[in-house]
Fold this protein.
Amino acid sequence: MTTFTLKRLLYQLHRWTGIAACVLMLLWFISGMVMLFVGYPKLTPWERLGALPQLQLAGCCQPLAQVDVPPDAREIVLTTVAGAPVWKVRDVGGRLRLFDAVHDQRLPSASRDTALASARAFLPGAASQYLDLVQEDRWTHSRSLDVHRPLHQVQMDDGAQTLLYLSSATGEVVLDAPREQRLWNFIGAWLHWVYPLRYHSTDPVWSWIVIIASALATFTALTGTVAGIWRWRFKGRYKSGARTPYRESWMRWHHVTGLLFAGFVCAWIFSGLMSMNPLRIFDPHGQRPDLAAWQGGTPATVRLGITPPQALNLLEQQGFHAVELEWRVLDKQPYLLARDGAARTRLLMRQQGQLVVREQWPQQQLLQAADKLMPGMVAGALWLTAYDAYYYGREPEAMMGASERRLPVLRVRFNDPQANWVYLDPYAGTVALGVDRRQRVSRWLFSFLHSWDLPPLLRAGPWREGALILLSVGGAVLSGTGIVIGWRRLRLWWRARQSRREPV
């Protein structure tokens, strides 16, 4: 194949794939700018905990030993639903059960009345209207909601006209979506993620549509970049005196804009493709950290010998007003994790025979427990007091904005074949994040290229947002001019086809 033929083929491929790809890219750039400021509806830990009342010493609660906890319970939490204290229990299969914490009885699935009472407790003083029991809709595609389906839908008459979704398993509020956020999302995340074509939390048809569309757009951006460089006169000029051969304004703007923003557009569209994890290339492989060994037991079998009133009294003495208590185990040692309405935490454990309240687990105990994750494979540990490239916080509107990322954190590296890293949260005694080599590659090919989310860039705040908006506007102009050129090309093609059909 001659160089001329190769170039012509590349021009043709860019021209015809660009007709469809530019429409998608324009929608992605516009919706991406909206997503910088308005995220997809989610309930953050701060919102959830902030709406819970303080657990009261008086009348609360039956000792956990009297509750019919299933032997396979992996999570036991004392919390409040619809204004009443309850035990929330999650079994090994993820199923949730609720027990009345005062009268020690199993509660049925949340009814319409329970959902309304819970909604009113979440937004006190606001009138509520029960709408429906939905399996899934445009705002509830998250797989984290699967255990709560179907969902009660309640419209609140507060200032924000908030739409609440509540678990049919427990009656808890699991998602809040104010009216303004919903409206912006129609040209934001809902459009950006092509959710009009998504019908289920696990939807392979939608996944492949987005993968193919992203691959097409990536191909169009790359071929356009190559064609644009070929056509640009870096030395000398065309007869018109310009470095671009195009005299028609739309073509000239498309060429110049394409060269100016080619790097950003190619990286951004490609990273969008990587976000879909095509062919599962970023799925973790091989041995994974053993969380069961890290814990060394479950709260169903290894518990701290303390009643809820005793725990609340000790916390109150420290000035900590708990809204939730969770029974947990770390390295065979039972403890309580308490949370207040601001999502702050305290640990209640037994040390040297005494019940004590701590703010953090000691670093040495965390490191000792970390060896259980992958015995004999710890390659190094570092106590981080600042975010690194993999463990960092995001603003609430970001896709991962509901993830708790506290500091300091203990980063532990393993010398296993997959080069696993874990980040251990001393405030909760949990594995806050685990990433292997593949997942770290995904972080650079998707998150960094797509969001510019390195901690120093995130700290730049308005400067980062301004740069992203400027580059997105450039991408939108490139896509918009491409649409006009493509539309003209289609009209010429259609007229030529019609003229061939007309009788002589």
